[in-house]
Amino acid sequence: MIHPRIDELLENVDSRYALVIVAAKRARQINNYHHQLGEGTFDEIPPLVESRSKNYLTMALEETSEGKITYTYTST
Predict the structure, then answer these.
(1) What is the pTM of this model?
(2) Structural domain count, the chain
C-alpha cells in the first residue's frame, strides 16, 4: 500500500501533474541536502518531516501530504 494515499496528496495540489513535479523537485532538494552534509555546506533546506523512510521521494510526498510544501505557477 502506498503511503501517503493519492487522494490525501491531491488535497494539497491542483493535479497529479503538479504533484509529480513538486515531489520530484523537492526530492532532488532533499538528495542535495544529504550530499552536502559531508561537504560541510548547507545551501539546501533539510527534510521538513520525520520519516521512517530513507527514500527521498517518499519524504517529499509526506511533506506534501502534511501541507508543508507550497508552490506557485510561473509563466516563462
Answers:
(1) 0.80
(2) 1
